[in-house]
Amino acid sequence: MTAVHLSGLSRRHGRWHDLDALVDAGAADAAAVTRLRRGGLARYAVHDGPATGLYADCLGETLDRTGLAPSAVDGVLFFSSTFSAYEDHADLAALCARFGIRDAFPLGMYLGQCTNFSSALTVAQGLAATQDLDNVLLIGVDVLDDRRAARVLPGEVSVFSDTAVCCLVSRARTDGYLVERVEHRYRPELHALHPQRDLLPYIDGFTGALAGVVEGLTKATGRAPDAYAKLVLANHARPVLRNFAATLGIPFDRVPTEGIGTLGHCFAYDQLITLGDLAEQGGTTPGDAVLAIGVGANYLYSATSFVRCEA
C-alpha cells in the first residue's frame, strides 16, 4: 500500500456561544442543556456568513504550514455533510482559482457524514497509489442550517459546532502522521434503528460493527487495540467515550477529551483536529501509534491507524 502522511492541519470555527444560547434559540430546553453540561459540553460554534471564508482561511494556513506551493497541489478533495449542490457547486473551483491551484484533480465526498474524514483519507491514499498524485489537499466544511436540522444530537450526547478544516495528505513527505491503514464497515440495515427507542438491537448492531472494523484493522496492521498510545474519538459526552474505550479494551486515560468542552462536535473533523492538537501540544511523540474511530450516521464505521513521525 502506498505510504501517505497527514500534516499541516488548520481549522476555523464559527462564533462561540455558551450552551444556554440553545435555550434562547429554541434548540433545546434547560433540562437538555443540563444533560449536555453533565457530559462535559460547554459551548458550540455558529457561523452566520458564507462558508467560503472559513475554508479559504484554512487553505491559506495549510499552504503556509507545509510550505507547499500551489503549483505542487495535485488533488483537492472537498468533504462535507451539509454541502448543497444548488448553493455551493462552484465554491471549490473559486477557491482553487483564488490560490492559483491549477490542474489539481477535484473531488467531492458527502455520504459518510461523521466518517467523511476517514473516507477522504481512503480516497486520497487511492489517488496517490493509482493516479500518481503526490500532494492532495483535504478541505472540509460544515455549517448547519438550524432551520432544517437539529443542533443538539439525539440523547444530548453532543452539540454541533460549525467548522472548517484543511490538511495535506502527501506521499512526498514524511512528517506529521503516517496513515498506516484505514478500515470501514458499512451496515446500512442499522439506519432504521433509533439509539433510544431501539436500544437493545441498536447496541448489538453498534458493538458488532465496531468490533468488526477494529478486528479488520488489527489483522491488517498486526497491532492490537491496547497497543495504541491514544484512542481518538468524536467530541461526544464523556460517558459515550468511556463506552467506546471499554468496548475496545483501551484505558480511558488514553482518550483525549479536551475538545468536548472547548469545541463541541465538529462534524467529521473532531478526529483530525485532535490529531493536530496532540502533535502541537506534545501529546504524541514520534513512533506513537494512534487509533481513530469514526461512526457516520450510525451505519458507517471506520478505524484508522496513524503513526506519529518526526517533524
In short:
With 311 residues, the chain is an alpha/beta fold. It has helices at 20-24, 30-38, 52-66, 91-99, 116-130, 199-221, 238-248, 258-263, 270-280, and strands spanning 5-13, 15-18, 43-46, 75-79, 105-109, 135-142, 163-170, 177-186, 230-232, 289-296, 300-308.
How would you sum up this structure, described in words?
The chain has 311 residues and is α/β, with parallel strands linked by helices. The protein has two domains: 5-170, Peroxisomal Thiolase, Chain A, domain 1 (3-Layer(aba) Sandwich); 177-308, 3-Layer(aba) Sandwich (Peroxisomal Thiolase, Chain A, domain 1). The chain has helices spanning 20-24, 30-38, 52-66, 91-99, 116-130, 199-221, 238-248, 258-263, 270-280, and strands spanning 5-13, 15-18, 43-46, 75-79, 105-109, 135-142, 163-170, 177-186, 230-232, 289-296, 300-308. The chain is globular, with a radius of gyration of 19 Å. The model has no long low-confidence stretch (mean pLDDT 94).
